[in-house]
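Project standup — Tuesday

K.O.: blocked on the structure for the chain from last sprint. Re-posting the sequence here as requested.
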Amino acid sequence: MNRHQVEKLYEVNGLKDYRLKTTDDLIKTHGIDFKEVDGYSRLDDVNKLLYEKFIINYFNGQGLGTRMTMIPKGIYFVEDFDYLVKENPEDDYWNVAGGLVMAIDKNGLKTVHRTWKDEDYAHLEAIEGTHKTYLRFEYKIDDDRDEWQHVIDPKTWY
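H.V.: unblocked you, prediction finished:
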């Protein structure tokens, strides 16, 4: 679909300013049912509501060209932590040598979602860094790039 066709879909659905108002608009203009992504059914009600509000704001924050290529792949409530190492024991700082992301379902069950390791630090002893929890939105863009966002609230992500 080209940009002109997407603009027409917005206009036909009463979205003359090319801004989505509801998740129904997301279905009508982009064919995306936000509930059909991996992880949605495992979210609690609070995180489902956050995701519903966020996804409209996130799509509206992108240009039409980007929206045309964006495909939501997953939404997860996660606990994320890093493994830290010191290259030199006398250093005042730590380097991040790896990480673990655990998906947490609505019943509190944790499963490994992602891990990573920097092989340059594999020979060093690591300690566990601080834990962070957040809603993790994963998507594909431009048919080839996998990206994700930390969702803080409906209007804040990074």
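K.O.: great, moving the ticket to review. Strands lie at 71-85, 95-104, 110-117, 127-141, 145-153, 156-157. The CA atoms of residues 75 and 137 lie 5 Å apart.
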